[in-house]
Design a protein that fits this description.
single chain; 2 helices; about 0% strand; rod-shaped; Export membrane domain protein; transmembrane; membrane; transmembrane helix
C-alpha cells in the first residue's frame, strides 16, 4: 500500500496528492491503533478470560 502511495505522490496528478496524503495519514493512524491500542485490549481480555476459567 505504501508503494502505491509513493507512486501516486511521484507520478500522479496534483489532484491525487491530497488523496495520497489522507491515505498515508489513515495508514499511520491505523497502524498506531493496532499496535498501541488493540494489543493491550486483547491482553486484558485474555487475562479476564483466564481468570473466569479458573
Amino acid at each position: 500500500t505504501l508503494i502505491s502511495i509513493v507512486a501516486i505522490i511521484i507520478g500522479g496528478a496534483t489532484e491525487l496528492f491530497d488523496f495520497a496524503y489522507v491515505l498515508t495519514f489513515g495508514i499511520v493512524i491505523g497502524t498506531y491503533s493496532s499496535i498501541f491500542i488493540a494489543a493491550p485490549l486483547v491482553d486484558i481480555y485474555d487475562q479476564v478470560i483466564r481468570k473466569a476459567r479458573d
